[in-house]
């Protein structure tokens, strides 16, 4: 059968959308299964069917009650505090580092920049024991400090992105500001920082996402249930000495991923711009 050019293009378009739609359903199936499980009874939550026989919205109420008198409101508040503080600190310190590597001159500048990039090759797991010994000697174990402060330190990947971005800002703007009597800090806050908006949002999204989902760090350092973030609280549903309420666990798991989804939806444009304009292909 001979097809015209327009018919071939239409057929290609249909096949493309069918394949993309099928792949999308395949990728979203675990999420849909989890949402469906949050609306089933605890005994049927693990069944393969996506449509529950009867909507069990009470799973959300039961899950929200939490454990030992501590509701999920406390766990969510702790997660927002940890992730929000770490994100703000990361954005400020990484942008300061990028400004120092691009707009100032000091001895061994290229060497220290190479050392910073080389730290990407160091696995975070090998730092667990030294960090724990150090924080324990300082008396920080049991507080939020060992959870938040290391995550505020500049991540080499974010610093590299910002360095590439700052290099694209004309130095003539700095020179004009210096003529007008602007200090280095003034140049940073009035010229550099406002122009870093896309890459700042990119770093912020990644830092918030990593901090929100972090499980091992709070598990090591937090000892009081009132300080647990959501990532640790979800683990408490799986108690080998009790019957697991799968419906409530799925309900709280679904609520726990909503902040990151909403954050990505609202800032995805800046995320794309931050990577595209920083010289990363």
UniProtKB/TrEMBL annotation:
It is a multi-pass membrane protein. It is found in: Cell membrane. Keywords: Cell membrane, Membrane, Transmembrane, Transmembrane helix, Transport. The keyword Cell inner membrane does not apply. GO terms for cellular component: plasma membrane. Belongs to the binding-protein-dependent transport system permease family. This is Carbohydrate ABC transporter membrane protein 2, CUT1 family. It comes from Halanaerobium kushneri.
